Amino acid sequence: MTSEFLRGRVALVTGGGSGIGRACAVALAAAGATVHVVDLDGGSAAAVARALGGRARGALAHTADLSDPGAIETLPDAVDILVNSAGLQHVAPLTEFPPERFTLIQQVMVTAPFLLLRRVLPHMYGARWGRVVNISSVHGLRASAFKSAYVAAKHGLEGLSKVTALEGAPYGVTSNCISPGYVRTPLVEAQIEAQAAAHGISPGDVLSEVLLARSAIKRLIEPEDVAAAALWLCGPHTGHLTGASLPLDGGWGAN
Ligand code: NAP
Questions:
Q1: Ligand 1 mean position to 127 CA, how many Å?
Q2: Is 125 designated active site?
């Protein structure tokens, strides 16, 4: 495999301004892809696009609120690799969970990937090649208390990914989920206080007693490790890997 095996391919990464999405954008660009970096915060998307070499290397930033279908319509559709990474969390018991927060999480984490697929699949089908990488979660396969919206959305994304795999197969399009345990990103850092309040423990105990309690490996995953798996799914040896969910969960699922 040459180091720039994605030269000539165009990628679109949602949530590309931060965390796992940013690491995916960096890895895809390093492998030669032109990368569209999409984020809610235009500043962070622009900073990542600049770091990838900017317009000269084909890295372009897009500001879009993925809960707005109209904003999705403004994004590029000539895309060979779609990475759905944008996401958000809200931790609260079901009885206190704000319905508008539940709806927003479904919009950003299930409806937006669906609308993006509708946009980009015709190009992938025409090119007879495409890669869809959905950043799911261990919570796409398992549940945790106080995360109703997130668990429901990730289970939905896993199903959407499998349907994409079935419909895309005749056109050389694969679709897979990467389903990590806890990754060292702003999303997890923001959760520590919320989890402490929900479980009635100190923030210091959240990592060992809540977040990593079911993981055999007792440390956070690095975003670059998730990005390496995403890159592998776009490589030349994974054309038969589709409709799958790759658990980067430190042994959580074995427990
Ligand atoms: P992150 O650093 O917070 O990144 C999430 C990104 O999504 C941010 O760039 C955020 O933009 C963007 N986003 C949120 N709402 C949006 C909206 N309405 N429109 C457009 N973009 C929006 O978190 P992360 O940990 O990298 O999360 C990336 C993905 O990995 C998520 O789908 C998450 O569920 C999944 N995941 C994370 C972990 C983990 O432990 N970190 C584990 C498993 C799965 P702003 O920064 O501008 O708000």
A1: 29
A2: no
